[in-house]
Amino acid sequence: MIEIRNLSRLYDGLAVVDDVSLTVETGQLAVLVGTSGSGKTTLLRMINRLVQPSSGQVLIDGVDTATLPAHLLRRRIGYAIQGHGLFPHRSVAQNIATVPRLLGWPRRQIDARVDELLALFQLDPAAFRGRMPHQLSGGQAQRVGVARALAAKPDLLLMDEPFGALDPLIRAKAQDDLRQIQRQLGTTLILVTHDMTEAVDLGDRIAVMDGGKLLQYDAPARILTDPATPFVRDLIGTADRALRLLSLARVGDIAAPGQAEGPAIAPGASLRDALAECLWSGRDALPVEGGGIVTLNALRAKARPR
Questions:
Q1: In whole angstroms, what separates CA 76 from the centre of its chain?
Q2: What is the dihedral of CA 243, 246, 247, 249, to 10 degrees?
Q3: Per-residue confidence (pLDDT) for residue 2, from 0 to 100
Q4: Is 80 exceeded by the pLDDT of residue 171?
Q5: 283/295 Cα distance (integer angstroms)
Q6: What is residue 83's predicted lDDT score, i.e. its pLDDT?
Q7: Strands 285-287 vs 293-295: parallel, antiparallel or unpaired
Q8: What would the CATH number be for the domain defined by 2-238?
Q9: pLDDT tens column, 234-259
């Protein structure tokens, strides 16, 4: 569990981060979102003390991080940045092995971990282990960057705009991969983005920041349906709130008994995907793989705040 208590950072007397407190439970994915200059990246960097707090505390599993040597703290926390940040003169395997090597892992254990992570990110170890960063596509390089951050099996992973440099198709795939792997590994993850859609799609909790202050820290559905301030309301926008709400739930959550014609939809598909299929195919109900149906009326009901 990560506890941020009354954390502030001043530059020339001005608060870039102003008395922020929040808690990220073990295994959660929390997203820090806000416009440029809102303080979200500074807040993230104070967690691993790349930026020293002016006041306040960061506790990881009850331990004040200020009591730990900074270099040892950072080896316990995975960190991934926009543009992957790979060492250009090191191979994929050498990049991923960076922190385990610093920690003194045996060579056999390092090699096994490199291959495990490459396979996890759907990169064939035999094909990618020896490649250099310039031989990777943007999406492949980003996956290697995240694999490197996870190499030492950290309990906490920090990510700063990790997908900002990717094109939309690769970005969507990278987001899906990250969420799947985060759930599989149970890693606690804090991610910075300026993209509210990305925050809603990925986050278990969303922290909205502006001017260094934390305006709201809540579940995505609550952020969408009950914004705490006019700034939060403007940030999420009003045009596609219903679609964002539908993206938070899965077809299997609302499948009901019945039968319907046409191709079936997977129970793990989002309600947004189901609505799109209903509208595209002109159907009022879709069969669900494994049994049951999802209806257009049920989708409409889910698209409205309660």
A1: 19
A2: 170
A3: 92
A4: no
A5: 9
A6: 61
A7: antiparallel
A8: 3.40.50.300
A9: 888 877 788 888 888 899 989 999 99
* Contact criterion met (CB below 8 Å) for 196 and 38: no
Numbers of helices and strands, H then E, in the chain: 15, 12
What is the Cα–Cα distance from 306 to 301, expressed in whole angstroms? 9
* Domain boundaries along the sequence of the chain: 2-238, 243-302
Q: Which two tokens stand for residue 167?
A: 């094109």
Burial class from Cβ neighbours inside 10 Å (0-12, 13-18, 19+) for residue 255 reads buried
- CA dist., res. 81 & res. 103, Å (int): 21
pTM of the model: 0.83
CATH classification code of 243-302: 3.90.1280
H helices present in 92-185, as ranges: 92-96, 98-102, 107-120, 125-128, 138-150, 168-185
